[in-house]
Amino acid sequence: MELKELDFGSIEPLLISDEFVERMVKLEKMCHHFHLSLQSGSTKTLARMNRRYTAEEFEEVTKRLRKAYDDVILTTDIIVGFPGETEEEFTETFEFLSKIKFFKMHIFKYSIRNGTKAATMKDQVPGDIKEIRSKKLLELSDKNELDYIKTYIGKEVKVLFEEKSGEYYKGHTANYIMVNVKSDKDLSGELLKVKITDVLGLELVGNVK
Predict the structure, then answer these.
(1) Which residues is 178 bridged to in the sheet?
(2) Is the pTM of this model over 0.90?
(3) DSSP state of 6
(4) Cβ burial, residue 105 (10 Å; 0-12/13-18/19+)
């Protein structure tokens, strides 16, 4: 079977060097979507998590990818309420995420796991505070995603269709945005040009060219 698109799973941010990016851009079938697991936008919190990068180093990675792909989509994972996360550190995270503008953020509330170092740390964050912080980041994620996909209205994109769901055939763009198209023809497995006409929830709607 012919390979139509190549997509990475979650990538360790520090692996994405200038040389790594230079090699990737030569791959024509590379999906322009990268999931970079950040966990926190506060360098102090990252250090307690035993992450090997700072927020500043992570930001350089995002700049590197955006320079290489003008339509790149970046997604990430964030943990709120990690032990010791102060209001100041959470604010740093919120401001960092507002600046980076990830397309989508998967938000997780820290939960104690027995046997881990974090479970024995002082200053465990109360559940109600984790809930408030989680909700705030989820709202930011939805806003970023909607703002971005609206920029595609009126544009023409290539879509790799996968299957029919309800009245629409569903597929993804090269940067992994979901597109919905109505068609009397079976579009499954087809790579086609689509003119985007509208937004449906947090997905795009269009017509096959």
Answers:
(1) 172
(2) no
(3) B
(4) buried
Where does the chain show beta strands of DSSP type E?
10-11, 33-36, 73-80, 104-109, 156-165, 168-172, 178-181, 191-200, 203-208
The helix/strand/coil state of 30 is strand
Query: pLDDT digits over 142-193, tens only?
Result: 999 999 999 999 999 999 999 999 999 999 998 889 999 999 999 999 999 9
Q: How far apart are CA 166 and CA 170, in angstroms?
A: 10
Report CA-CA distances (Å) from 198 to 72, 152, 206: 21, 9, 7
208 close to 192: Cβ distance less than 8 angstroms:
yes
Q: Judge contact between 204 and 186, C-beta under 8 A.
A: no
Q: What is the largest CA-CA distance in the chain?
A: 61
Give the DSSP letter of residue 118. G
Delineate the domains of the chain, giving CATH numbers in brackets: 10-150 (3.80.30.20), 156-208 (2.40.50.140)
Tokens standing for residue 25: 């851009």
